[in-house]
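Budget justification, computational time. The allocation requested in the original proposal was used primarily to generate structure tokens for proteins on the priority list. As evidence of use, we reproduce two of the resulting records. The first is shown immediately below.
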Amino acid sequence: MKTITLERKPVHAKAKHPHELIRRIQKGLPFSDLKALQTQIDVPLEQLAGKLSISRSTLQRRKTNGRLSPDESDKVMRFARLLEHATDVFGDIDKARAWLKHPQYGLGGAVPLDYAETEIGAREVDNLLGRIDYGVYS
């Protein structure tokens, strides 16, 4: 399993096996992982929170409590996974960010980060990245 890096530390550095990562998500990731993702994707925190379906008031509570809910943690990992996949495909985090933030023909003109708000959409983004990586861009 690949290591998804947030804030210069692997999100699942302690997770030697996928079930350990699942347990961390079920427990709720630290709020700092959301901040790290926000920095890496380079979008305002409130905009990213909106894409993760976290309201402004909930965002403030999470910041105060220092921990995300399991559902929010799962979404953070989804976006981190896509950022890592795009970075692998394009070979550069800046190119990956740009690709994730702009409409893509292969998604019917949708913005990948918008599409990734749902799991099915995230799978489509992942599939498109796979096609690009194998030279079957459509």
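The second record produced under the same allocation is shown here.
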Amino acid sequence: MSPSSELLVERAARLPAAVALHARPAGSLVRAAATYAADVFVSANGQRANAKSILDVLALGAEGGTELAIDASGEDAVAAAEHLAALIPELA
């Protein structure tokens, strides 16, 4: 990464075993991501989605127990990545 590159913050979190990333938990994740100015993405199963787009997040098809990767860049990236990584295990 060159000195002029934006900071990229990465965190990992696992979905609860009984919780797939369907409409309600995905909506919670998207609403939380939307509160940040950072560009935020979530990855699972080799796919990457804009964490601020419900359709993108739903398209991941993440099942319960799936390991998710959160990456954020830009203003408040650290706060965004840490908040979302903490939120994921609490989704219901």
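A brief technical remark on that second record: The chain has a mean pLDDT of 94.
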